[in-house]
Design brief:
Length: 450
């Protein structure tokens, strides 16, 4: 069971670029479609006027010719179809017929025009669902020329014109969307740069943000962020300086008081006096340990975790383990392959503080009858395992906090794991705590993956 706190899952946040692109695409598409629809309506009206003009001109030009021809024909002769010289069987959209005053068809242009057209024999335009008809008369309304245009032809012409306008729109909309995306992306580049600069700020990186690439609208925000970073940096520097100075100032008098107490304890013979002296010695040792942890915490807050050049961390680990083995306080098992090496761009001092706290935590809180195992793997994983009861997930989360321990009776200052996590973050490492330990039913394991 891992001791890492579960992170709250947050859905994808809406992007300004995505939102602008969607709105612009929708507006562009709607405007193009409205423009195409308006154009189609206007074009249909104009087409109607053009077709009506063609009907009227055809009828007026045809009328003198028909009158001259009719005057030379026998009135009792059957209706005559005027065939096209180009294609006699043509079914053109424009048809016409010549009628007398009674409505009898004298001439017609197509076979379908042999029957009288439904329009009245009065000059002007007339329309039904099938035809638009223009009527003109001569010789005291005794000769009537009617020219008809198919409504299907008109509707198809308007439809083809509308499609001719709509098809380019369908092709232009994606081009406009791509152009809008490129423009938005280029315009929001300073905003993205500003966002990335802010996201990189933490306790170890509080440098001011470069305001040069920011547009005028973001300059006040950038200046406010820099002022806030300056105040935060000053506060953190003051806190680190106070912690470091306090720890340094406390170490010497605490060490002196502890030495005097131990000397006094060696000379005391009375049981009550020795018991009190032992309590004073224990308190001074706890105070010395706390001052040491505060000094380590101040160094961790100062950002000493990383370096520019990689170094092999195995000799540092060997030295720390050997120091604990020489102290003889607890049995320590060191499992390290001979050929393993850990070249990392990590501060040796920070790495030593982390390993020392991991081993110290294991020796202090583990079962006295079980050894502490320090293992190194070739992938850069360092694990420290000790025997201990299984901790609950709530306890694993709690002990990661500063000055927090598994219980009130647990020894220690509650700063070791916080120091490890802070330095591990600076070393770009991952720190995990497991209870029970790997491949065990109990125990506690601290694991550092560099």
């Amino acid at each position: 069971m891992s001791g890492n706190a579960k992170s709250v899952s947050i859905g994808p946040m809406p992007s300004i670029t995505r939102r602008l692109l969607l709105w612009l695409s929708a507006v562009i598409t709607v405007l193009w479609l409205v423009a195409a629809a308006c154009g189609a309506i206007v074009m249909q009206t104009e087409f109607g006027e053009i077709f009506d003009s063609a009907l009227q001109e055809t009828g007026d030009r045809l009328l003198p010719l028909v009158v001259d021809d009719i005057m030379q024909r026998d009135p009792l002769q059957s209706p005559m179809q005027i065939l096209s010289a180009i294609n006699p069987d043509s079914d053109g959209y424009l048809i016409y017929q010549v009628r007398d005053g009674s409505g009898r068809v004298l001439m017609h242009s197509h076979a379908e025009a042999a029957a009288p057209l439904p329009a009245p024999l009065t000059p002007g335009f007339w329309q039904n669902d099938k035809y638009r008809i223009y009527t003109t008369t001569a010789v005291s309304n005794s000769i009537v020329v009617q020219v008809a245009d198919s409504m299907v032809h008109r509707h198809l012409s308007a439809l083809e014109a509308g499609l001719a306008m709509l098809l380019p729109v369908i092709g232009l909309v994606p081009i406009c969307v791509i152009a809008a995306w490129l423009i938005i992306r280029r315009s929001l580049t300073p905003v993205e740069h500003f966002r990335q600069e802010i996201s990189e700020k933490d306790h170890g990186n509080l440098a001011e943000i470069d305001l040069t690439p920011l547009p005028k609208e973001l300059q006040p925000i950038g200046r406010s962020v820099n002022l806030l970073l300056n105040r935060l940096r000053s506060a953190l520097d003051a806190e680190r300086e106070f912690t470091a100075n306090s720890a340094h100032e406390l170490r010497t008098p605490i060490a002196g008081a502890l030495a005097q107490t131990q000397l006094l304890l060696a000379r005391l013979q009375e049981p009550d006096a020795r018991a009190r002296a032992i309590q004073v010695e224990t308190s001074l040792q706890k105070l010395a340990s706390l001052s040491e942890k505060l000094l380590q915490l101040s160094r961790a807050e100062a950002g000493i975790g990383s370096t520019d050049a990689p170094v092999d961390l195995v000799p540092v680990l060997d030295l720390v383990v050997e120091d604990f083995q020489r102290s003889g306080a607890r049995s320590l098992v060191y499992d390290r392959p001979l050929e393993v090496s850990l070249p990392r761009a990590v501060s040796e001092d920070a790495f030593a503080i982390v390993v020392r706290n991991m081993i110290e935590n294991a020796t202090r809180h583990g079962r006295p009858d079980e050894p502490v195992t320090v293992a190194v793997k070739e992938d850069g994983t360092i694990s420290v395992v000790n025997g201990a009861p299984v901790l609950s997930p709530e306890q694993l989360i709690m002990i990661r906090k500063r000055f927090q321990r598994a219980s009130a009776t647990t020894p220690g200052s509650g700063l070791g794991l916080s120091i490890i996590e802070r330095l591990a973050d600076q070393m770009s490492a991952r720190f995990e705590i497991l209870s029970p330990a790997s491949h065990r039913k109990d125990g506690f394991e601290a694991r550092l993956v560099i």
